[in-house]
Amino acid sequence: MKSSVKRFLALGIRYLLLIGISVVFLYPVLYMVCNSLKSIQDLVNPTVEWLPSKLCWDNYTRALKTLDYGKTLPFTFLYTAVAAIAQTVCCAMAGYAFARHEFPLKRFWMVMLVAAFLIPAQVTLVPRYLMFFNYRLTNTLFAVWLPALLGQGVSSSIFILVFDNFFSSYPKSFDEAAKLDGGGKFTIFFRVALPMVKPAIVVSILFSFVWIWNETYTSGQLMGAGLRTLPMKLESFVAEFTNIYSTASGDMAARLNESGRLAATLLVVAPLMVLYMILQRSFIRGIDAASGLTGE
Amino acid sequence: MKKRNEKEKTKKKNHQLSLHQRNALEGYLFLAPWLVGLALFTLFPVVYSVILSMSDVQMAPTGIKTRFVGIQWYREAFTLDTTFPVSLLDTMKFVLLSTPMIVVSALLLALLLNGKFRGRSVFRGVFFLPVVIISGPVIQELLTTRAAAVIQPESFIIYDFIASLPVVLSAPLLYIFDNIVLILWFSGVQVVLFLAGLQKIGQPIREAASIDGASPWQMFWKIDLPFLKSLILLNTIYTLVQLSAFSSNEVNQEVVNKMTLVGKTYGYSAALSWIYFACMLLVIGAAFLVLRDRKEKAK
C-alpha cells in the first residue's frame, strides 16, 4: 500500500519535471507555428498575440515555392543521407580500431582526434577553400562526401569517440569466440561487432544527418551556387528579402516578412523531426536486441 | 584487457610478438581511412592557418602575399589588445561554469526519460528538439525574436531568497537560475548519448538488484553511474567543444570582427583563434585527467 503511494508520487514528479522542461523546448516551436500562420493584418495587430484570427496558409505556399521544395527536398535528403552513412562507416571503423586494438602511437592519434574536433572553423575556411580548389572538388558534392567518407566531416570525431565507447563496453569474448570459429577480421567487424553497438550506429547516423543537413557555413562555400540545400536556400531567402526592403524601413519589413520566414524555417527542419521519429523506433528495438545479448 | 595481456604473456615470446603485431596491424587497417582523411583534408588547412597566424598577410588582387613575422601577433594579443584578454577570460569562465551544469542536467534528464512510462516517445521527441534547433537555422530565428527566453527567473520568489544568501552560496545558484534555459538548450545531444548509454544496462541487472532490495537511489550510484562513467567523459569533451565553437560567444565574435583589421588582415585573428584553441585543449586535457577510468590508468 505504502509503496504504491510512493510510486504514484514518483511518477507524478517525473511527469511534472518532464512537462515543465518540455515547455521550454516547445515554446519557441509553438511561437513559430503560430506566427507562421498569421496574415499581415494579424502580424501588425498588437491585440493578436498567439492565435491568428484566421489561418493563413499563403505563407506556406509562398515558402514552398521560394524554396523550390519539391525539387530541393529530395536533393538535400540524398546529399545528406550519403554523407551521413559514409561518415558513420568510417567512424565505426576508427572507433573499433581505438576500442579493440593496441597499436603504437595510439595515444597520439587520440589527442589528434580531439584536437581535430576543436579546430576553429573560421580560421581554416580560406585555406580549406584553396585546398579543395586545388583538388578540383569545389562546386561538386564530393567536397562534402569525400571528407565524410574519410572521417573528416562535421563533428566526425565525436562519432569516433562514441563508437570507441560502445565497442569498449561489450565483452571481448564475443570477438574471440568468432575468431575461434574461423571468422576473418572484417567478418567479425560486420557480423559480430557492429550488431552489438546498434544504438551507437543509430546515434551516429541521426546526429550526422542533422548536423550535415544544418551545416551551411563551410559546405555552402565549397559547393558553390549551383548546389543549394534547403537550409542554404533558406539563408538566401532571408537575405534577399531584407535586401529588397532594407532601404524602406528595415524593421517593418522584417516584421512583415516574419511569417513567411518562419514558415520556411519550419519546412526546412520538419524532415529532421520526422526522421528522428522514424529512427527512434529502431533505436529502441536495437537496444532491446542488444540488451538480450549483454545479459549473458 | 588486462586479462588478455596476462594470458598473452604466458605464451611463448615469439608467438606473443606476432600476436601483438597482428593486432597493431589490424588496428591501423581499421584506422586507415581516418588517417588518410586527416592527411588529405585536415593537415593542410591547419598548418597553413598556423603559418598565417605568424605572418603579415596582404590580400592583393594577384593573390595572398605573406611575410613572416614570428610570434608578433601572439604577443600583441596579450600586450596591445585591450579587449581580447578580457573576452578570453570571460569565455573560459563561461565554459568552465556551464560545462559541469550541462553534463549533470543532461544526466538527470536522461534518467527521467529512461524506463517505461506512458508517453515516453513523445517526450523523447520533444527532448530531441534542441539537437535540431541549436545546430540549424532555427537558432537564428530564436536569437532575433528572443523566444528562447521563456522563463524569467527574476519573477520567482525563490530567486530573491537565494539572492539574499551569502555570495559563496548564492553566486553559483543564481548562475544556474539565470542560465537554466541556456543549460537546457545545450544539453540535447548529451541527453541522447546518455540515453543510448543507459540502454546498455540490461534489465536483468536491475531486476537482480531490486530483488536484493536495492533502492532506486542505490541503483543509480551502484549501477547507472559506473556504467555511464566513460560517457560522462565523452559528454564533457563534447560540451566543451560545443560551447567553445558556439558562434555568439565573445572570443569567436572577436575573431570574426578582427578578421579584416587594417594592417593585420587574417593573420591576427588566426593567432587569436590558436591561443583560444590552446586554452581549450588544456581544459579538455584536464577534464580527461579528472574523469578518465581508473582501469585506464593501470594500463
Identify the notable features of this structure and list them briefly.
heterodimer; A: 296 residues; mainly alpha; MetI-like fold; 14 helices; 79% helix; 0% strand; globular; disordered C terminus; B: 299 residues; 2 domains; two-stranded antiparallel ribbon; 15 helices
User: What's the CATH class label of chain A?
Assistant: Mainly Alpha
Helical percentage of chain A? over 70%
Helix-strand makeup class of chain A: mainly alpha
Count the domains of chain B: 2
Approximate helicity band of chain B? over 70%
CATH C-level category of the largest domain in chain B:
Mainly Alpha
What radius of gyration of chain A results from the CA coordinates? 24 Å
Series of H and E elements of chain B: HHEEHHHHHHHHHHHHH
Q: Return residue spans of chain B where pLDDT drops below 50 for at least 5 consecutive residues.
A: none
Q: What's the total helix number of chain B?
A: 15
Concise overview:
The complex is a heterodimer of chains A (296) and B (299). Chain A is mainly alpha-helical and 296 residues long.
Any chance you could write out the topology, listing elements then pairs?
The complex is a heterodimer of chains A (296) and B (299).
Chain A: H1 2-36, H2 40-44, H3 58-67, H4 69-100, H5 106-118, H6 121-134, H7 142-149, H8 156-168, H9 173-180, H10 185-196, H11 198-214, H12 217-223, H13 230-245, H14 250-294
Helix pairs in contact in A: 1-14, 3-14, 4-7, 4-8, 4-11, 5-8, 8-11, 9-10, 11-14, 13-14
Chain B: H1 2-10, H2 13-52, E1 55-60, E2 63-68, H3 72-79, H4 84-113, H5 120-134, H6 137-145, H7 157-163, H8 167-178, H9 180-185, H10 188-198, H11 203-211, H12 216-245, H13 250-257, H14 267-291, H15 294-298
Antiparallel strand pairs in B: 1-2
Helix pairs in contact in B: 2-14, 4-10, 4-12, 4-14, 5-10, 10-12, 12-14, 13-14
